Please model this.
Amino acid sequence: MPKITRALISVTDKAGLAEFARKLASFGVEIISTGGTAKLLVENAVPVRDISDYTGFPEMMDGRLKTLHPKVHGGMLAIRDNSEHITAMAQHGISPIDMLVVNLYEFEKTVARGATLEEAIENIDIGGPAMVRAASKNYRYVTVVTDPKEYPLIIDEMQQTGGSVSEKTNFELARNAFSLTARYDAAISNYLQGIDVEEGEFPLTYTMQYTRRQIMRYGENPHQKAAFYSDLNVEQPSISNAQQLWGKELSYNNIMDSDAALDLIMEFEKPACVILKHSNPCGAAQAQSLSDAYRKAFSVDSVSAFGGIVGLNRVVDAETARAISGVFTEVIVAPEYSQEALDILKQKKNIRLLRVPGITLGSLAKKQLLFSRRITGGILLQDRDLGDIRLEDAQVVTKRKPTPDEMEALKFAWKVVKYVKSNAVVYATKDQLIGVGAGQMSRVDSSRLAIIKAGNAQLSTRGTVVASDAFFPFRDGIDEAAQAGATAVVQPGGSVRDAEVIDAANEHDMAMIFTGMRHFRH
Model:
């Protein structure tokens, strides 16, 4: 590749720019720049030529028109070994531009802070994307730099080559640049498509872009290929921005299950532990200490806990670490680990330790977003299930109201059942999950399964409460619960046989609350 002789620089993010431009100048590169960028370079004693001087055309219309000029785009689009292109350049006084350094108006940040439509429109970059696309199209001859993180790579290569950048590097940079403009246009499209859309409606088109984080050994099963992609800007507690402190790379199933564990553990305020297997809670408890919470959660289903995912909402101490280390555990998701706990857990080579500080913020840290699920030929979109209701404000439909202890137990059970695959029924006390019935085709079978699971763990369902993610369609589920010794029920209600179900609860002297809110989880 020939040496870079001329660079056009026009950036919004000016981090590291002065030093980068100074090093370009040291290679004899002529720098052309615009507005605030040129001002910064002059202030830092970097030789710069103003864009208006270069094009012979003034910036105008409040900066809307400054780089949309043949001398700019011709200088980047010209194929250097095409004689017709070179002749045209000579005839019209167009000089080659060998490098473009651009990042775009911050449209996404502008709309995220609640800007007006007028402000959003003014932050739609026109010249920037046009130049980025032109330079990227001609990557064989032009280096396009769109991220300050790329500055060191560029300078290092120029130092090794005496001032040039390879076509291989240019291709990688161009590929990144086209991803940038695609994301930028998607953000604008999604924003405009959301304007004047009635509440509860979705845009006619919706565009998504993610960045690849990891190629996985395999997917859900060994014969399936898989990769992990994440949002580009994750602003809430997430497995995507978790810090892995120890262990092998997360597998496809690890990520799915860890995400579910993170979602559930953030529902609790007291020291708590949840244990998940195949994205279903098989243990959950809260206690005065984290170690006690773990032991109680583990006792709910010690068989299923083998190879499970543990979620914790307090700093993992040595006592908790010792308790967990006695059981094969795939992943721990926690806000922090003491050094002594790390020393203990790192003796287990197959465990993965994830640090997510935002767990301690609880459900308040969860933000609304659109969830997608791929089907053959399309996707389903829905907003995140952040629906909640104060059980104290819910409708008591039976003759008897829940006692204070029953109310606390109902709150605990309602938090957990939301994260169990439908059909879901759970039995619980005010600080411990007792039995889980998940994923059955009939709700009464889920209720029966929860009782069986509790019995297998030698946990009594006497005096427990029951939570169901959707209404009981028949009284049989209530009869099963009463026979097992449960004393109170929380469920959405809404069945055509609600009266029959309420009568059953009254016959058994059970208290029952209708929330009016369903939590299916498929």
Notes: The domain at 393-514 is CATH 3.40.140.20 (Cytidine Deaminase; domain 2). Residues 167-193 form the longest helix (27 residues). The CA atoms of residues 163 and 236 lie 42 Å apart.
